[in-house]
Amino acid sequence: MIKLFIPDIGIEELEAVIKVLESKWLVHGPEVEAFEEEFAEYVGTKYAIAVSNGTIALFLVLKAFGIKPGDEVLVPDFTFIATATAPMLAGARPIFIDINPRTYNMDPNDVLNKITPRTKAVVAVHLYGYPAEMKALREICEDKKLILIEDAAQAHGARYKGRTVGSLGDAAAFSFYATKNMTTGGEGGIITTDNKYVAEKLRMLRNHGQLRKYYHVELGWNFRMTALQAAIGRVQLRKLERIIKVRRRNASRLKSELEQLNWVRLPYEDPNNRHVYHLFTIWIEDTAPLTRDELIEYLKKWGIETGVYYPIPLHEQPLFKELGYKKCCPNAEEASKHVLSIPVHQKLSDEDLATIVRAFKSLKPL
Questions:
Q1: Spatial CB neighbours of 164, under 8 Å, sequence gap ≥ 6
Q2: Which domain holds residue 117?
Q3: 69 plus 196 within the same structural domain
């Protein structure tokens, strides 16, 4: 089976874990601090704060900026549910924003349409590894005095007009879940920011509200990253540019081979930006020889794993329908019916890529 995801874990990660185990320093400490420094340098921010996972990273950012009950946070309707539930955990109400169907990222025009006096923050997701339209979003947020947060869970190393994502908003949340372009061993997250006050607040909140040892100044949680996770993350970070290079090369080959198929819409990429292809997501047109579900089964027979990210826009999830959310984002609804992700990861062989291409080219349009 040509898998959709294969973590790039090898002997270097194993050696790093053994070193930590031998040190007996398993929680926080110098390994985590080193990872934070290296990640901040890579992204181009003053601070990075490591935490237990990406959802917690986003939740803590919102808490650190003072998001509270009664506030509204604008989030894209087409993304993983954690982007919307993190504001809810902070007591706020998520407001769903439609997407640009070319990039799958939030539409700045819809952001303008949905700002109210209760709006306090905008969470811009860099979906599939492609940067959101940060210039327009930044201008809106500055004009309306809103906090701009990046959800960079899928976009480690992506660039927007030459700048690395994670350095474009007031703060950013990253995930190191097992399927991401880099992982810390299954779970893990990190927050980047240039705001010293926010960085200090985040360090307290992740560690029981502790300002110094046994001196607790506010309600906090145990959301620390382990030294084992940090050790794996440091190795993964050193591999990241190579991983991105191979993913981009694979994406380029898929694009060049599949562009002749007029029933497949390929991923968009502005030449001023860098897509890191966490996912290679295509749009299956209505003129395709098979429905999306039929295509999934057809590709499975070729030994090709696929995925649909995401089959239900957030406002239609049972959780939000029960809370009274109504239809609001037609582009997100359409995308959910048409998108399909196919393998692009760095472990694909030339033969794997050739098999994917042959499978698609063996189909004839209606």
A1: 42, 43, 44, 157, 158
A2: 11-236
A3: yes
Place of tokens 């190795």: 235
Task: For residue 58, give the CATH number of its domain.
Answer: 3.40.640.10
In the structure, what pLDDT confidence band is assigned to residue 365 with cuts at 50, 70 and 90? low
CA-to-CA distance for 289 and 6, rounded, in angstroms? Answer: 29
Residue length of the chain: 366
Do residues 226 and 262 share a domain? no
Instruction: Assess contact for 191 and 48: CB atoms under 8 A.
Output: yes
Amino acid at 89: L
pTM value > 0.85: yes
CB 311 within 8 A of CB 338: no
Residue 52's Cβ-side half-sphere holds a number of Cα atoms within 13 Å equal to 11
End-to-end Cα, the chain, rounded Å: 28
* Beta strand spans in 214-266 (E): 215-216, 264-265
User: Is the CB of residue 227 less than 8 Å from the CB of residue 31?
Assistant: yes
Q: For residue 366, is pLDDT > 70?
A: no
What span, in angstroms and rounded, lies between the C-alpha atoms of 331 and 78?
Answer: 9
Instruction: Count the domains in the chain.
Output: 2
Parallel, antiparallel or unpaired: strands 72-76 and 119-125 = parallel
